[in-house]
Amino acid sequence: MANTENNKAKEKMITPRAKDYSQWYLDIIAVADLAENGPVRGTMIIKPYGYTLWERIQTILNARFKEVGVQNAYFPMFIPEKFLKREEDHVEGFAPEVAVVTHAGGKKLEEPLIVRPTSETIIYDTFSNWIQSYRDLPLLINQWANVVRWEMRPRLFLRTTEFLWQEGHTVHETMEEADERARQMLDVYRDFAENVMAIPVVRGIKSESEKFAGAFRTYTIEAMMQDGKALQLATSHNLGTNFAKVFNVSFLGRDGEQHYGSQTSWGLSTRTIGGLVMAHSDDKGLVLPPRMASIQAIITTIGHGSDATNVEEKAREIMKALQDAGVRVEIDARELRPGEKFYEWEKKGVPIRIELGPKDVAKNAAVVVRRDTGEKQNIALDALASEITTLLETIQKDLYTTALERRVAHTKTADSWDDFTQAIKEGNFVLAHWCGDAEVEKQIKEETGATIRCIPFDQVQETGACIKSGRPSTGRVLFAKAY
Amino acid sequence: MANTENNKAKEKMITPRAKDYSQWYLDIIAVADLAENGPVRGTMIIKPYGYTLWERIQTILNARFKEVGVQNAYFPMFIPEKFLKREEDHVEGFAPEVAVVTHAGGKKLEEPLIVRPTSETIIYDTFSNWIQSYRDLPLLINQWANVVRWEMRPRLFLRTTEFLWQEGHTVHETMEEADERARQMLDVYRDFAENVMAIPVVRGIKSESEKFAGAFRTYTIEAMMQDGKALQLATSHNLGTNFAKVFNVSFLGRDGEQHYGSQTSWGLSTRTIGGLVMAHSDDKGLVLPPRMASIQAIITTIGHGSDATNVEEKAREIMKALQDAGVRVEIDARELRPGEKFYEWEKKGVPIRIELGPKDVAKNAAVVVRRDTGEKQNIALDALASEITTLLETIQKDLYTTALERRVAHTKTADSWDDFTQAIKEGNFVLAHWCGDAEVEKQIKEETGATIRCIPFDQVQETGACIKSGRPSTGRVLFAKAY
User: Does B255 lie at the interface with A, CB-CB under 8 angstroms?
Assistant: First the structure.
């Protein structure tokens, strides 16, 4: 690294992206102090700074869920084994990865308990009691919870045995209304991804092979990471009446007849934080979009002794002014060399650094540095609050634009198998024709590692030939390697 | 019930407190729609209205923890069995009630995993890596999590197999500092109990028999329920160096030597909601203190047809004015008979009902009804915002005062075994002398059902004879039957 201070720092070096992207990802998590492995393989300890990201996600999504009428509740973590077995596709999908409690209170249990991998079964068993007539609908429930899915290849945030998430579960009178809700919640996620996390996403429908176990249809938002791989940021499922039938979620309709409820479920997890890390960070550390940052601006004081008192007093004035303008700001007045302090906040991805020393105070100005571009500017102290507010918005937009431009540059169309495999190999999103055959989808995956990320909402209807089978297709689907 | 509307309602009747206090408690939870039993024995489903209470607790405590420097984090739920076994008292205390995962990912695990009953072991194993020198101290961490303790006699909120809580864990340089922190956090709980939940508490130290498994000393806040029984609302433990020694939580001190950290842990759980229910509610339903209520005032409209439009418009104006004054308010404009609406919000414990009909609008006034006393008053619409704000504060204070007066009236001193057993039988807190012998404490429990709730902070030093053994004692301790 070019920066002299960095070389002096004793902290772990960051492996450059170009050298080893996977190691770079783990290095960023380590140097930004976000998380570490737990003592049981596949588990994760979310450290305080990492947990602020989950808290931002909770705060913002909670407000948005409330706006669209959703209420929070909490359901038990232990699911009777027989519940999981009721929906055939569901058990097939989840049985291989569940954790099972066989003993409790010093005794062997009569029936083993499953630690929830997701809560459709236990929640819908309850819903069957809560719902009598159409007057009880729509029922719009969400819970924030931990879930467990045994992971063979764990990776911090992206794949952990236990993870935190929210899972929404709704019941509606009609299939149309359920589908509308599933799409509405996907749009809540899209809006959050794009306008809070600054990550552009492709919205679409999952292929039959990739959809949620037990769903009628799965909607997804897919983001491109810096290595060209896709990450599914959130999914929203139209469950149809699949679960309603096995858990008897039924209601007396307006027509006086008994009907099964049409349902949705939708979730976003701590996995999203992995996506956030990979979307914007660079070889110097984490880069956070301002709306996700628990600290949006850090005022780093420079100078010791008698000078310092003056500087610290001014720093507190600036902090107050910024707080009044709604900026989340802190002061770093530790007696360390300026470079050390700069380096620390750089690693932690704080969007703006405000450097303040005796000379700056004398000139009634501060040096303001953008984390994303490294750009420096002198700003008069009395203009700071308004300039910083504007700059945070600029950074937020620029991060989104950069990510979008990257995705556009790395999204290719392919019409021949050679072009397709080449484009996948080079780390692109590839729009290509597919015949709709799950067997062909599987072959493509085996030969290239690419999966169908989704059938995009904005798919253009056009006649084409499947990239693999040559059979007819009516539109391109999105292929990519994925996390 | 005297109220005609109530008799007509099809809902579950509430068993009067005087008839069957235990059933009354369960009835309140049912009619207020707070929670219900889960499919696995001892588990609980927290329904949306009940969950708002937990959200209030989280929001308020989170802010207070932050004020005293505590940061949130998240640690894995699965604890290697060997961790639990390291601290002798701790394993003895918790082993009988843990749930054990023996299979996961389709295989038998090499080492069984404990579902956390509390997280001292896994967190301190981690802390041992986080802490090198005194510069890393104090370390002040909290997590919001679910925990599992197998319950033989489950009861909604009060004793559930899985419950939600926060657990704080801190490390300090000295025993004095740890003790100060343990007391400081107890005071955060006391302040929350008294000033938010309107529940007066007795602060004190647990006897050796009642202290947390592995603690050096346990501090507690104890509240009196309406039946005179005690409920422990929260505890805060000075762990000394007990865990630090087994998990090697050590640091390089200012003196250049290696020292063990002095630790605390402290927690408050969904059990507290059971206490809230029992502290204030009456035979008509739940009674919530305004600071805990997600809906502080409900505007119930009266009248149908053309009148209704006018009334609803006025109701929205009032809602806006109240919201601007910081009141959490909603409108119930459903086309139901007024009595049905009144009854519903009464059951749900909403502190203030604002009745608004065509006649009220014509008179530019509304009928305002207090949930706690049933007192009605006419208030001019333009005075409503300020009057309601004041009334909410009055209700908050009055609930506290009523609970305090009840406790004072039901706190007795006893100097003979006969007086003691009689006072316990009649449902009192009893201050009595005890010789300090755990065996005697056990006998008292066996013969009367009463336990030592705490050695109160405000214990008066006085010479006396143990109520049971007659041996000398230097002060009275607090006895009561407890939940």
Answer: no
* B152 contact residues in A (CB cutoff 8 A): 105
| Superfamily of the domain at A411-480 | C-terminal domain of ProRS (3.30.110.30)
Summarize the confidence of residues A310-338 as an average pLDDT: 95
- Number of Cβ within a 10 Å radius of residue B36: 17
pLDDT in tens, A29-71: 999 999 999 999 999 999 999 999 999 999 999 999 999 999 9
The tokens describing A118, both together, are 């997701």
**Tens digits of residue pLDDT in B287-320:** 999 999 999 999 999 987 777 778 999 999 999 9
- Between CA A186 and CA A217 the distance in angstroms is 13
* Number of residues written out for chain B: 483
Whether the predicted pLDDT of B10 surpasses 70? no
Question: Are the C-beta atoms of residues A65 and A142 closer than 8 Å to each other?
Answer: yes
Confidence of residue B6 (pLDDT cuts 50, 70, 90): very low
Q: Determine whether the interchain pair A44/B76 forms a contact, defined as Cβ–Cβ distance below 8 Å.
A: yes
User: CB contacts < 8 Å between A and B, how many?
Assistant: 160
If contacts are CB pairs under 8 Å, which of residues 144-173 in chain A contact chain B? 145-146, 148, 150-152, 161-162, 164
Q: Domain boundaries in chain A? A: 8-280, 290-394, 411-480
- Going by C-alpha positions, the residue among B453, B135, B127 that lies closest to residue B264 is B127
pLDDT digits (tens, 9 = 90+) for A339-364: 999 999 999 999 999 999 999 999 99
Mean pLDDT of chain A: 95
Residue pointed to by tokens 């989840």: A94
Q: Give whole-number Cα distances, A137 to A133, B10, B133, in Å.
A: 7, 20, 58
Average pLDDT over residues B399-404: 98
- Determine how many CB atoms are found less than 10 A away from the CB of residue A18: 8
The secondary structure element, H or E, covering residue A168 is strand A162-172
The radius of gyration of chain B from alpha carbons, rounded to an integer in Å, stands at: 25
What single-letter DSSP state applies at residue A360?
A: H
Q: What angle do CA B363, B369, B373 make, to 5 degrees?
A: 150
In this structure, how many other beta carbons lie within 10 angstroms of the beta carbon of residue A97? Answer: 16
Test mutation, B74, B121, B340, chain A, max A CBs within 10 A: B74
What pLDDT was estimated at residue A11? 55
Q: Tokens 């009689």 belong to which residue?
A: B422
Q: Which residues in chain B (378-437) have CB-CB distances under 8 A to chain A?
A: none
3-state secondary structure of A64: helix
Q: In B, which residues are within 8 Å of A83 by CB distance?
A: 39
CATH topology of domain B297-391: Rossmann fold (3.40.50)
Residues 6 or more apart in contact with residue B451 via CB below 8 angstroms: B210, B441, B445, B479, B480, B481, B482
Neighbours of A313 (CB within 10 A): 11
- Residue A6 — pLDDT band, cuts 50, 70, 90? very low
Alpha carbon distance B204, B183 (integer Å):
10
Cα dihedral A392, A394, A396, A400, rounded to 10, equals: -170
Judge whether B8-280 and B297-391 match in fold.
no
Q: Does A78 touch chain B (CB under 8 A)?
A: yes
ipTM of the complex model: 0.95
Which CATH superfamily, name and number, covers A290-394? Anticodon-binding domain (3.40.50.800)
Please give the class, per CATH, of domain A8-280. Answer: alpha beta
The per-type count for chain B, helices as H runs and strands as E runs, is: 15, 24
Task: Tell me the C-alpha to C-alpha distance, in Å, between residue A381 and each of A290, A392, A394.
Answer: 21, 17, 19
Instruction: Using a cut of 0.90, tell me whether the model's pTM lies above it.
Output: yes
- The mean pLDDT of B374-393, rounded to a whole number, is 97
* The pair of three-digit structure tokens given for residue A324, joined into one six-digit string: 């009044």
Of the listed ranges A167-176, A306-315, A416-425, the least confidently predicted one is A306-315
pLDDT at B11: 56
